[in-house]
Structure formats: structure tokens, C-alpha cells
Please model this.
Amino acid sequence: MREIILTLVILILVGSFIYFFRYRNKEKPKVGVKRKDSAEYFKDYMELKLYWGSISLIVIGIIGLLAIGIIEMTII
Model:
């Protein structure tokens, strides 16, 4: 059980570090903006994937910890 809780806390920390150090005080990355080079479209897409990936890591970690907490409270 400790390993699962530790893994979920690490997920939350990694997602938080990515979000706060990369996207704090910035707006959400935009996709679909007209670019001259097609490589810039790929860069925009990767920025958006990293943005949503960091948020999803935080959400998955919090939901997992809440689920474990609820399960533990019902067992006791």
C-alpha cells in the first residue's frame, strides 16, 4: 500500500513541477495558428500535449489518493 501511495504522490509532484515551472503565469498553448514552417505545428502540438499531460498527472494522482482514502475509511 505504501508503494501505491508513494507512486501517486510522485505523480502529483511531477505534474505540479512541470505545470508550475513551465506554464505558470502563461496562457494555455495554442494549436492551429498559421505557421510558415510545418515543424512549428509539431512544436505547438507537443507543448499542448505536455500542458494537458501535466494537468492529467495531477488529477490522476489526486483521484487515486482520494480513492485509497475512501477505501481505507470504509474498511476501518
Q: What stands out?
A: Residues 1-75 form one domain. Residues 28 and 51 are 8 Å apart (CA to CA).
